[in-house]
């Protein structure tokens, strides 16, 4: 009984998928013909057309059939696991695997066809929007076009400035991380040198000179980093 139900659902799915594929193909050809016929695009290409509604309806029906077939396969799997005749387990498992493969093929075909349909519809929406923008741009006055160009240029300048600021912040953060790492290394070296100084008092004067030079180098490095950061910010905002 379960195999009979599964075969019936598989036959229904096969017919539905064929009709679904034909619908997607006819949708693409219809849109291409309409685009060639109405080159001015005074009306939107895609709206609540009968093909769109039919697509949604058929997609829901196919998803319901796939869910029912999956439930039948699960019931067959439960029956196989609870079968009382061990000699039939191999044949039952082969049959169950065959129905699972069919379900997987139908599911893959459905998702592939649906994805193709959505891609075509999204492309048509995008093309329609671009055509509308082109028409509105052409129909606008010269002053409006000039203003639009100025706005676009200003927007591009703002994007460039934003990108430079982000790069400057990234450089500053990387410099901070390097300085933190170097500070940790210097602290470790300093603690070791202090330990040596406590053990060998004669090296104390040498350590003091090293500390003075280290402070001087730190001040110089900090000044250079500050000047570079200021220059980068001035360049970015300029």
Automatic annotation (TrEMBL):
<keyword id="KW-0333">Golgi apparatus</keyword>
<protein>
    <recommendedName>
        <fullName>Golgi SNAP receptor complex member 1</fullName>
    </recommendedName>
</protein>
<dbReference type="GO" id="GO:0048219">
    <property type="term" value="P:inter-Golgi cisterna vesicle-mediated transport"/>
</dbReference>
<dbReference type="InterPro" id="IPR023601">
    <property type="entry name" value="Golgi_SNAP_su1"/>
</dbReference>
<dbReference type="GO" id="GO:0031201">
    <property type="term" value="C:SNARE complex"/>
</dbReference>
<comment type="similarity">
    <text>Belongs to the GOSR1 family.</text>
</comment>
<feature type="transmembrane region" description="Helical">
    <location>
        <begin position="219"/>
        <end position="237"/>
    </location>
</feature>
<keyword id="KW-0472">Membrane</keyword>
<keyword id="KW-0813">Transport</keyword>
<comment type="function">
    <text>Involved in transport from the ER to the Golgi apparatus as well as in intra-Golgi transport. It belongs to a super-family of proteins called t-SNAREs or soluble NSF (N-ethylmaleimide-sensitive factor) attachment protein receptor. May play a protective role against hydrogen peroxide induced cytotoxicity under glutathione depleted conditions in neuronal cells by regulating the intracellular ROS levels via inhibition of p38 MAPK (MAPK11, MAPK12, MAPK13 and MAPK14). Participates in docking and fusion stage of ER to cis-Golgi transport.</text>
</comment>
<dbReference type="GO" id="GO:0000139">
    <property type="term" value="C:Golgi membrane"/>
</dbReference>
<dbReference type="GO" id="GO:0005484">
    <property type="term" value="F:SNAP receptor activity"/>
</dbReference>
<dbReference type="GO" id="GO:0005797">
    <property type="term" value="C:Golgi medial cisterna"/>
</dbReference>
<dbReference type="GO" id="GO:0006888">
    <property type="term" value="P:endoplasmic reticulum to Golgi vesicle-mediated transport"/>
</dbReference>
<keyword id="KW-0653">Protein transport</keyword>
<keyword id="KW-0812">Transmembrane</keyword>
<keyword id="KW-1133">Transmembrane helix</keyword>
<dbReference type="GO" id="GO:0006906">
    <property type="term" value="P:vesicle fusion"/>
</dbReference>
<dbReference type="GO" id="GO:0005801">
    <property type="term" value="C:cis-Golgi network"/>
</dbReference>
<dbReference type="Pfam" id="PF12352">
    <property type="entry name" value="V-SNARE_C"/>
</dbReference>
<dbReference type="GO" id="GO:0015031">
    <property type="term" value="P:protein transport"/>
</dbReference>
């Amino acid at each position: 009984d379960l195999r009979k139900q599964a075969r019936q659902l598989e036959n229904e799915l096969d017919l539905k998928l064929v009709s679904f594929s034909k619908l997607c193909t006819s949708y693409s050809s219809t849109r291409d013909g309409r685009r060639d016929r109405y080159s001015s695009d005074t009306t939107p290409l895609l709206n609540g057309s009968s093909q769109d509604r039919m697509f949604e309806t058929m997609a829901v029906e196919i998803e319901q059939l796939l869910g029912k077939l999956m439930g039948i396969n699960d019931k067959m799997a439960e029956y196989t696991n609870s079968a009382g005749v061990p000699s039939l387990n191999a044949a039952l498992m082969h049959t169950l695997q065959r129905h699972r493969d069919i379900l997987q093929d139908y599911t893959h075909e459905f998702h592939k066809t649906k994805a193709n349909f959505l891609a075509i519809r999204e492309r048509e929406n995008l093309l329609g929007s671009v055509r509308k923008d082109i028409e509105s741009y052409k129909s606008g006055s010269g002053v409006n076009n000039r203003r639009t160009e100025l706005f676009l240029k200003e927007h591009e300048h703002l994007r460039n400035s934003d990108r430079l600021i982000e790069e400057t912040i990234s450089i500053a953060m990387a410099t901070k991380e390097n300085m933190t790492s170097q500070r940790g290394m210097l602290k470790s070296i300093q603690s070791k040198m202090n330990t040596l100084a406590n053990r060998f008092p004669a090296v104390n004067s040498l350590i003091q000179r090293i500390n003075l030079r280290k402070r001087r180098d730190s001040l110089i490095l900090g000044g250079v980093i500050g000047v570079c950061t200021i220059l980068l910010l001035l360049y970015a905002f300029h």
